[in-house]
Amino acid sequence: RAELVSPRAESAPVRFLLIGLALGYMLLFLFLPLVCVFLNAFAQGFAAYLRALQEPDALAAMRLTLLTALVAVPLNLLFGLAAAWALTRFEFRGKNVLLTLIDLPLSVSPVIAGLIFVLLFGLEGVFGPWLRSHHIKIIFAPPAIILVTIFITLPIVARELIPLMKALGTDEEEAAM
């Protein structure tokens, strides 16, 4: 039988070393790049930064970001809530398939996901000829950005709601008894 080890069982130097390594990692990969971004953004002064924000490309990028968020967030809420509700409240054939599809974006490399979208919606892709004949542009256009954003973020919504709904369902079942 294995004995439980107290979290304080490690010596103080080992604890300090591990904490120092974790903080160093965060500093190196999170804070240092963030500081570099801000230093470069304000390198020519705050007025130059404000002028750069008024450039047509910057304004277009901000509009695209807002459009993507305005479309992706409600759709993710709707579909993530529906998927989490279905998975926690009902037993049905294909439940594991739905769960696998929800987890798919978390397990597929973003490079592979991008390639899949190009193979589906690109000029020579599965739907490419039909899209071209109907003058619909998806790849390298806002629809692709919105689709990919939804694809990547939907599992996060569903995966966060599933445990919550399971816990709420358990509480409701216990209250009904």
- Strand share of the residues? under 5%
Structural class: mainly alpha
Largest sheet: none
State the share of residues found in helices, binned by percent: over 70%
Question: If you average the pLDDT, what whole number results?
Answer: 88
Shape: flat
The number of helices is 7
Oligomeric state of the chains present here: single chain
Which residue ranges are poorly predicted, with pLDDT under 50 across at least 5 consecutive positions?
none
C-alpha termini separation: 38 Å
Our Rg estimate from Cα atoms comes to 24 Å
Report the order of strands and helices. HHHHHHH
Instruction: Report the strand count.
Output: 0
List keywords for this structure.
177 residues, mainly alpha, 7 helices, 78% helix, flat
What does this structure look like?
The chain has 177 residues and is an all-alpha fold. It has helices spanning 12-41, 46-53, 56-89, 95-107, 110-121, 128-133, 142-176. The longest helix is centred in the last third of the chain and has 35 residues, at 142-176.
SSE blueprint:
Elements: H1 12-41, H2 46-53, H3 56-89, H4 95-107, H5 110-121, H6 128-133, H7 142-176
Helix pairs in contact: 3-7, 4-7
Quick structural gist:
The chain has 177 residues and is mainly α. Helices cover 78% and strands 0% of the residues. 7% of the residues are buried.
